[in-house]
Design a protein that fits this description.
The protein has 378 residues and is α/β, with parallel strands linked by helices. The protein has helices at 2-19, 21-28, 94-105, 142-149, 152-162, 167-174, 176-188, 259-273, 288-310, 315-321, 336-347, 358-371; strands spanning 53-57, 62-67, 77-80, 86-88, 114-116, 135-139, 201-203, 206-211, 214-220, 230-234, 239-247, 277-282. The protein is built from twelve helices and twelve strands. Helix 6 (167-174) packs across helix 7 (176-188). The longest helix has 23 residues, at 288-310.
Length: 378
């Protein structure tokens, strides 16, 4: 009795805040005004070790843990096993982070003394709390930005509402993309128990860290994908951990920044650093081609968007009309909407940090996929 009442009150508060009181009234009350009971049966706890992740050695002292599905939140991590050890990015939830730690443990006997977050998004920082005692390093913007975009309670609420016995179907009618994304995340992720742990050592433009005799360069290149975008460059081993400046074989998403800034970052990687190996934020390990193909995609989408913008089409319509060409086989091609909308914002002279309507954005991804005859993949 008390549990059902508490859960009902939770749903009331969240639905009213997110989707309006009228939707709430229809969703959670019957003709007699009684609350429906919320159940969490749709939310399945992920078993550690069950989601496809693998570790790959990419140089003498550098390793990558890769999430093979390459969908939203399937982020990569890195390890440099020299000196006190350094981990780059800490996964999207605690079970993935623990799996990553186990994998790294096969080549490194102790917990690393340093952790680098390449930017503020949840899928790169949610394992931070497991590295107790480690120095966590990131761009100066991260503590504030993480509070804005990676608040765990928001993810927890979304997952509960999207998987609610009553609220889920109703929310799907209003925001099918939101429910689709949440239920996809439910397949692999569990956001309960996560505490937001921001970096404690901050830098502005560049920071050089010495792991014994191995120099590691942290270089801020953002905003490209997000404000804090940082690449980790290991010059002696010719390896770049690129964070989300590079998505490999999946369609990129840019939340803050400009096309020009993103392309400049990619040029910096290819023309100045010239690495032998790139560990992208998402997708398989690659070489220079990962950066050049990303730049080509961004330039193509921006050019196509300009034509449709000049013709007076909306970003939604333009994103459905653009021929995906060689990028059609990239995972989640429907994310093109987000990139077209970003281009439109530039053409309208809007600020690069203008807030996004997250619900509308994921609904547009859903509609774009359906318009192209695809099953939505977020």
């Amino acid at each position: 009795m008390h549990q059902g009442r508490a859960q009902g009150n939770f749903e009331k508060h969240y639905f009213a805040k997110r989707f309006g009181n009228q939707a709430l009234l229809v969703a959670l009350t019957g003709n007699n005004g009684q609350e429906y009971r919320y159940t969490d049966a749709g939310h399945r706890k992920r078993e550690e070790g069950k989601t496809p992740m693998n570790m790959e050695q990419v140089s003498n002292n550098c390793y990558a843990v890769l999430n093979e599905k390459n969908r939203v939140c399937d982020a990569n991590s890195g390890l440099i096993n020299v000196g006190g050890g350094m981990v780059i990015d800490t996964q999207s939830d605690l079970s993935h982070a623990r799996d990553m730690i186990k994998m790294f443990g096969s080549v490194w006997s102790t917990m690393p003394k340093q952790v680098v977050n390449t930017h503020e998004d949840a899928d790169h920082v949610y394992g931070n709390q497991l590295f107790e005692g480690a120095e966590i390093i990131g761009h100066r913007s991260l503590p504030d930005r993480m509070k804005m975009v990676a608040e765990p309670t928001e993810f927890q609420k979304l997952m509960r509402v999207a998987n609610g016995a009553l609220s889920g179907p109703l929310l799907k009618l209003i925001h099918p993309g939101v429910v689709g994304a949440a239920r996809q995340l439910t397949e692999d992720y569990e956001f309960n128990g996560i505490e937001l742990v921001p970096p404690t050592k901050l830098f502005d433009d560049r920071l050089i860290i010495n792991l014994d005799d191995l120099e590691v360069h942290l270089i801020h290149v953002g905003p490209c994908h997000q404000v804090g975008d940082t690449i980790v460059w290991v010059p002696k081993e010719r390896v770049v951990f690129a964070g989300d400046t590079i998505f490999r074989l999946c369609t990129p998403m840019g939340w803050v920044g400009t096309f020009e800034k993103w392309c400049e970052a990619l040029d910096f990687i290819t023309d100045e650093l010239k690495p032998d190996v790139i560990v992208p934020g998402h997708g398989p390990v690659c070489g220079i081609e990962g950066a050049t193909e990303m730049k080509a995609y961004l330039q193509y989408v921006r050019a196509e968007s300009k034509q449709f913008f000049d013709d007076g089409l909306s970003a939604s319509d333009a994103s459905r009309k653009i021929d995906l060409g060689p990028y059609a086989d990239w995972i989640s091609p429907e994310r093109i909407y987000l990139n077209v909308e970003r281009a439109y914002r530039e053409f309208r002279g809007e600020p690069p940090d203008k807030a996004w309507d997250q619900a509308k954005t994921f609904d547009e991804l859903y509609k774009n996929a359906r318009a192209r005859g695809l099953t939505p993949v977020y």
